[in-house]
Design brief:
Elements (H helix, E strand, L loop, with lengths): L35 E5 L2 H10 L4 E6 L3 E5 L5 E6 L12 E5 L4 H11 L4 E6 L4 E7 L5 E7 L7 H8 L17
Parallel strand pairs: 1-4, 5-8
Antiparallel strand pairs: 2-3, 3-4, 6-7, 7-8
């Protein structure tokens, strides 16, 4: 028996599929359950890359100090002015979700800004298509998009092997678990 349950209604990420439509950028103000802070020597260069390459927008700015970027709800990034930034990208990465139809455009946009910025896309054993992006601040960012779930596929067997099985009822199954 699995202790996991379907709680997709909490997420802005749409159900994976060839016709999945990404949600609109979310400009509401909320208590952020998680976010990433990234030091940068040049706020304007960084903001430009994140907006034109990665699809974020500027939520607000404290001039010369900080820019709060967002994409969908719960995809928050704080670019913070700093004198020192890492010379090399860290092993650690920050991932944010998208939909499959956005993968090629994101790769193209990032490569237009920096031809060496991306690695991938590549498919993962956990049923996503991922693109690794190195930003001007040397942050390692992974854009990840869920692929349609095939219950008879290898990815389903990989997930089942660790105790994750698809819900029988689909979305909205959270009632009995809340």
């Amino acid at each position: 028996m699995s202790d996991y349950y379907d709680a997709f209604e909490m997420s802005p990420v749409p159900t994976p599929g060839p016709d999945a439509v990404p949600p609109e950028p979310f400009a509401g103000i909320y208590g952020m359950p998680a976010f990433v802070s990234i030091p940068t020597r040049d706020l304007d260069v960084s903001v430009d890359f994140w907006i034109r390459g990665l699809g974020f927008f500027e939520l607000f700015r404290i001039p010369g100090t900080l820019v709060h970027l967002r994409r969908w709800a719960f995809q928050d990034v704080l670019l913070v002015s700093a004198e020192n930034v890492p010379e090399q990208p860290p092993a650690m990465s920050f991932s944010f979700a998208g939909v499959l139809s956005q993968v090629d455009a994101l790769v193209e946009a990032c490569r237009a800004l920096d031809p060496n910025a991306t690695d991938g896309p590549r498919d993962t054993p956990w049923n996503t298509r991922d693109v690794e992006v190195i930003t001007p601040e040397n942050a390692r960012i992974v854009f990840t998009a869920a692929k349609p779930f095939d219950p008879a596929g290898q990815e389903a067997r990989n997930l089942e092997a660790i105790g994750i099985t698809p819900p029988a009822g689909g979305r909205g199954d959270n009632e009995r678990h809340a």
